[in-house]
Amino acid sequence: MTTTAPNQAGKKSAGKPKKLSMKARYSALTRDLDWEPSYVSEQEMYPHTQYEGIKIHDWSKWDDPFRLTVDAYYRYQAEKDKRLYSVLDGFAQGQGHLTLSEAKYLNAMKVFLSGVTPLEYAANRHFAYMARQFNGPGPRFAALCQSIDEMRHAQTEIHTLSNYNKYYSGMHNFIQQHDRVWYLSVTKSYFDDALSAGPFEFMIAIGFSFEYLLTNLLFVPFMSAASFNGDLPTMTFGFSAQSDESRHMTLGLEVIKFILEQDEANVPIVQEWVDKWFWRGYRVTGIVAQMLDYQLPRPVMSWKEAFELYFEQQMMGGLFPDLALYGIRPPKHVEQAIWEKDHLSHWLHDTFYQFSHAANFTTTVPDEEHMEWLSQAYPDTFDELYRDKWEEMRKLDEEGKRFTYPGLPQLCQVCQIPMTFPQHGNPHLKAQFTSEYEGEHFNLCSDGCKWIFEREPEKYRQAWLPVHQIYQGNCGGPTIPDVLKWYGVQEGDNGEYVGSVDQKNWVRWHHQIEDKLGTSSEIEETLEAEGVHAAVKKIEEA
Amino acid sequence: MAEQITERPLVSVDLQETEENRGLINAIEADNPDLVINHFPGVIKLQAPGRLLISRESVEAQLGRTWETHEFQMAIITLSGNVSEWDEDRIVISWGPRVDDEEDED
Question: Is A114's Cβ below 8 Å from some Cβ in B?
Answer without folding.
Answer: no
